[in-house]
C-alpha cells in the first residue's frame, strides 16, 4: 500500500516537475517571441516612417511643381500676347499706352506678378505697368536682356533671381524677345514674379523644424529656398547629391541625402517643373523623423518590458500553483466553455449598423464571402460599389458630430432607397464610407445605379459650406467580378478602392469604374 502510494507520489512529483518544465519552457518561448516581435516591429516602424515621409515629399514636390508651372504659364501667356501685339502693331506711343492698360489689368488679376516691362533694343524702358518710367532707366546689363539680344530663340527665358531696380523686391523674371519685321532684335518683354509669392505657397506646408523647400534651375542655381536667406539666392548646388540623381531622363524621385547647402541629412522628393528648366525639391530632416520613431519605439519597449515582467510573474505563479493544476484545468475548461458560448453569442450579434439602420461591416463581409462562394458554383456578374462622403471631416469640424451623424443617416437613407432588390446589399463600410454589393449586375448597371444615388444626394442639397459646391456630395468607385473571375474579396475591394481614390483625386463628386 505504501509502495503504491509512494509510486503514485513519485509519479505525481515527476509529472509536476515535467509540468513545471513545460511552464518554464513556454514562458521562455513567449518572452523570446515577444522580444523578437518587438524588435521586428521597431525595425519595420523605422522603415515605415522613412518610406511614408518619402511618399509625402514626393507628393509635395509634385503639387508644388504643378503650382509653379501654372504660375509661370499665366505670366508667360500675358507676355506672349504683349510680344505679338508689339510685333504686329509697333511700339508707337498710342500702342504702348493701350498695351500698358492691358498689362495693368492683367497684373491686378495675377497676384504673383510684380510687374510687366518692355525695353527697346538699347535696353531703354518703353513700358512699366507699375507706373511712370524712371528717367534714364536702362536694363541692357541684365542677364535676360543680354540673352535675348544674343539669341534668336522665340521661347520664354527664365532669368536668375534679382532685386528689382524700381521697388528693391526680390523677383524672378520670365521674358521673351521682340523682333522687328525683318527678324532683327527689337527689344524685350518681361514679366517679374515676386519670390515672396513662392514663399507664400510654401507657408502652409509643415516641414518640421529643419525641413526645406527649394526651387532651383535645372543647371543647379537656387531661385528661392525656404527658409529664405538672401545669401543663398543664386547659389550653385549642381555638385550636390540631388543633381547627381537628376539625370537628363529622370523627371522625379526620392532619396535620403545630405544637403549641399547646410550638410543636414534629409529625406527628399524632387520633381522637374513641366515645360520649364526648373526643379522643385522638398526635404524633411531625417533626425526629426527618427525622433518621432524613437518616441514610438520607446513606448513600445516600455510596453514590451511590462508584458515580459507580467509573463515572468505569471510563470512563477504557475510554478507555485502546480499542485492546484487539476482545479485550474477544470476552471480553464469552464472558461473555454464560456469562451465558446461567448463566441457563439458574438457570431449571432445583430448585423445592422446602429446609426444608419443599414447593414454593418460584419454583415457586408459575410455577404460578400457568401456571394463569391455562390459565384464559383453559379457564375454571374457581381459588382461592388464603394461610396465616400466628400470633405466629411470638414463637415464634422464645422457642424459638429451630432449633425455629422444626421448627415450619415441621410446619405444611408438615399442609398437604401435605391438598393431594393432582394439579392443586393447596402452597408455602412466604416466611418463615412458605404458599400453596395449588386448581384447579376455588370459595370454598366452598377454605374447607372451609382450615378442615380450621387445625383439624388446632390438634389437633396444637404448644406455643406466647407465643400466647393456648398452641398454634401459623394465620390464613388466601382469594381466587378465578371464571369469566370473568382477573385478573393480583398482584390474586389482593393480595386473599388483604387477607383474611389481616382474619383477623389480628380475632383470628387464623380463615379469611376475600375479598369
From TrEMBL:
- One of this protein's Pfam families, by short name? dCache_1
* Keyword hit for Membrane: yes
Instruction: Give the GO biological process terms.
Output: cell adhesion involved in single-species biofilm formation; negative regulation of bacterial-type flagellum-dependent cell motility
Q: Where is the GGDEF domain?
A: 380-515
Write out the entry's keywords from A to Z: Cell membrane, Membrane, Transmembrane, Transmembrane helix
Residue intervals passing through the bilayer: 20-43, 298-319
- Principal localization? membrane
EC number(s) per entry? 2.7.7.65
The way it spans or sits in the membrane comes to:
Multi-pass membrane protein
Protein name (database record): diguanylate cyclase
Q: Which organism is it from?
A: Pseudomonas saponiphila
The organism's lineage is:
Bacteria, Pseudomonadati, Pseudomonadota, Gammaproteobacteria, Pseudomonadales
Amino acid at each position: 500500500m505504501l509502495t503504491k502510494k509512494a509510486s503514485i507520489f513519485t509519479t505525481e512529483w515527476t509529472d509536476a516537475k515535467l509540468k513545471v518544465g513545460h511552464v518554464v519552457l513556454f514562458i521562455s518561448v513567449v518572452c523570446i517571441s515577444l522580444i523578437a516581435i518587438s524588435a521586428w516591429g521597431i525595425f519595420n516602424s523605422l522603415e515605415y516612417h522613412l518610406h511614408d515621409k518619402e511618399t509625402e515629399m514626393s507628393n509635395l514636390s509634385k503639387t508644388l511643381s504643378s503650382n509653379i508651372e501654372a504660375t509661370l504659364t499665366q505670366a508667360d501667356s500675358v507676355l506672349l500676347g504683349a510680344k505679338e501685339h508689339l510685333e504686329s502693331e509697333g511700339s508707337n506711343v498710342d500702342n504702348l499706352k493701350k498695351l500698358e492698360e492691358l498689362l495693368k489689368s492683367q497684373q491686378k488679376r495675377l497676384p504673383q506678378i510684380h510687374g510687366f516691362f518692355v525695353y527697346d533694343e538699347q535696353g531703354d524702358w518703353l513700358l512699366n505697368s507699375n507706373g511712370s518710367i524712371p528717367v534714364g532707366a536702362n536694363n541692357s546689363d541684365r542677364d535676360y536682356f543680354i540673352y535675348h539680344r544674343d539669341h534668336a530663340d522665340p521661347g520664354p527665358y527664365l532669368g536668375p533671381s534679382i532685386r528689382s531696380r524700381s521697388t528693391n523686391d526680390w523677383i524672378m523674371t520670365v521674358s521673351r524677345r521682340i523682333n522687328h519685321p525683318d527678324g532683327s532684335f527689337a527689344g524685350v518683354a518681361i514679366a517679374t514674379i515676386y519670390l515672396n509669392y513662392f514663399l507664400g505657397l510654401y507657408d502652409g506646408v509643415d516641414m518640421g523644424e529643419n525641413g526645406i523647400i527649394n526651387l532651383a534651375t535645372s543647371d543647379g542655381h537656387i531661385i528661392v529656398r525656404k527658409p529664405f536667406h538672401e545669401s543663398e539666392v543664386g547659389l550653385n548646388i549642381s555638385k550636390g547629391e540631388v543633381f547627381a540623381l537628376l539625370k537628363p531622363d529622370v523627371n522625379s524621385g526620392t532619396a535620403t541625402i545630405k544637403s549641399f547647402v547646410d550638410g543636414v541629412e534629409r529625406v527628399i522628393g524632387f520633381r522637374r517643373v513641366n515645360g520649364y528648366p526648373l526643379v522643385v525639391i522638398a526635404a524633411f530632416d531625417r533626425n526629426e523623423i527618427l525622433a518621432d520613431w524613437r518616441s514610438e519605439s520607446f513606448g513600445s519597449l516600455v510596453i514590451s518590458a511590462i508584458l515580459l515582467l507580467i509573463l515572468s510573474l505569471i510563470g512563477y505563479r504557475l510554478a507555485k500553483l502546480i499542485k492546484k493544476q487539476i482545479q485550474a484545468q477544470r476552471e480553464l475548461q469552464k472558461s473555454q466553455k464560456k469562451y465558446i458560448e461567448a463566441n457563439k453569442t458574438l457570431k449571432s450579434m445583430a448585423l445592422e449598423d446602429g446609426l444608419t439602420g443599414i447593414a454593418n461591416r460584419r454583415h457586408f463581409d459575410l455577404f460578400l464571402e457568401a456571394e463569391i462562394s455562390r459565384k464559383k458554383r453559379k457564375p454571374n456578374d457581381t459588382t461592388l460599389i464603394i461610396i465616400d462622403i466628400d470633405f466629411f471631416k470638414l463637415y464634422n469640424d464645422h457642424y459638429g458630430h451630432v449633425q455629422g451623424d444626421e448627415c450619415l443617416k441621410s446619405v444611408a437613407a438615399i442609398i437604401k432607397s435605391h438598393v431594393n432588390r432582394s439579392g443586393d446589399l447596402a452597408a455602412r463600410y466604416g466611418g463615412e464610407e458605404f458599400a453596395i454589393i449588386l448581384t447579376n449586375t455588370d459595370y454598366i448597371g452598377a454605374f447607372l445605379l451609382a450615378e442615380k444615388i450621387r445625383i439624388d444626394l446632390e438634389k437633396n442639397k444637404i448644406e455643406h459650406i466647407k465643400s466647393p459646391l456648398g452641398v454634401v456630395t459623394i465620390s464613388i468607385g466601382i469594381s466587378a467580378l465578371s464571369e469566370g473571375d473568382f477573385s478573393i474579396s480583398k482584390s474586389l475591394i482593393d480595386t473599388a478602392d483604387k477607383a474611389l481614390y481616382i474619383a477623389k483625386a480628380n475632383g470628387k463628386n464623380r463615379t469611376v469604374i475600375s479598369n
